[in-house]
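Q: Second attempt. The first request was missing the SMILES, so the protein and zinc ion are both included now.
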Amino acid sequence: MRDAEAPGRRVWIRDPLAILAQGAGGGLVVEGSRIVEIVGAGARPASPVDETFDASRHVVVPGLINTHHHAFQTLTRAHPLAINKPLFPWLKALYTVWGRITPEAFRLATRVAYTELLLSGCTTAGDHHYLFPEGLEDSVDVQVEEARSLGIRAAVTRGSMSLSDREGGLPPKTLTQDDDTILSDCERVLNLFHDPAPGAMVQIGLAPCSPFAVTERLMRESAELAARHGCRLHTHLGETLDEDGYCLSMFGCRPVDYLERVGWMTDRVWLAHGIHFNDAEVARLGKAGVGVCHCPTSNMTLASGRCRTCELEAAGSPVGLGVDGSASNDSSNLMEGVRHALMLSRLTYGAEAVTHLDALRWATQGSAACLGRSDIGRIAPGLEADLALFTLDELRFSGAHDPLAALVLCGATRADRVMVAGRWRVIDGEPLGVDTGRLREDHSRLAKALFGAG
Ligand SMILES: [Zn+2]
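A: Got both inputs this time. The predicted holo structure:
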């Protein structure tokens, strides 16, 4: 649903210290939920404004867009059972703990993840939720409620696991649902919450967890359902070499061949991680317009490998960024992810091949393209007024020259102001309507209880 109450006031965000938009030295004008004018350096808006915000201390960038996360994992950050493990043993160690997450803990985990994202300058929170044990059947509903309450734009994907370890998959039976239950709940949440219109505050995607956690039928029927509803499709693919081995033994083909076999080689799809693709697979994915969400922090933590960001983009795939779940990151700070994307890609391609502007582009325009959205991700007239404003007042920026480069190279982690759909949602580094002290206390207590039970 769009924000019908957004005021129609004209606000001039004036004379920023720096801004990630062409010819916008004088700032921009927001009216209602949208950007209506770009103001040149030394110029004034074409029509009178109701309010002026002096941005002379601020570096202004389009609101960052997160395209992969698992909010529930904030309850198992730095968990002793899982640290220092690669993906498959890491997952097996955590499944049983995740199976004990209570509805109250899940709600607070979502609130924590969304709030962390917002504070890092993120205006669209993507979450891939695939955990629906008894008591958490309405998880998508909870995630939509929490996003609305915080005022952050949401891309919630209805995840799923239907192939348990008894049937050759990885997750335990207690964490899986049968295909029919999953498909009917997908249809329910699409009908209830998915808004396909420009300016949408909530969009729903369908997201079978991974080849090693769902049946082939669920992959096929999810794709058919997504086509009927005009929504996006998402899954984990190409994260580790273990997955290559699994696909070869279970399906007799590599992960990208499997993707094609189940009808997923379309521009409706974006993949999480997308690391272990050969040259021919990169070309095929690019030709089909399949997007890839690069999760640099998680990929380094689990030592999964390096995403071929530049080759994928050159081949035609949109490349966005994601924090990934908070048990493999273990934070939900997307600005930190921008810095890691720059560094990891430089290690792969060299110091001159990838710039701070590339990393910021992945987190904004690239992520928007992964979500199939052209109404967010840039600062331009007609686009949604989703903005992140950072000051360079901390000691870590002292002596910095290029303000936009400083954001990434000196390691900005916290926005001073964040606007979503024309409304301030963070002011002076604090989220509106959230008592972060109390949230941390309650969330930590429930996380500890979970650990105690393990
Ligand atoms: Zn993930």
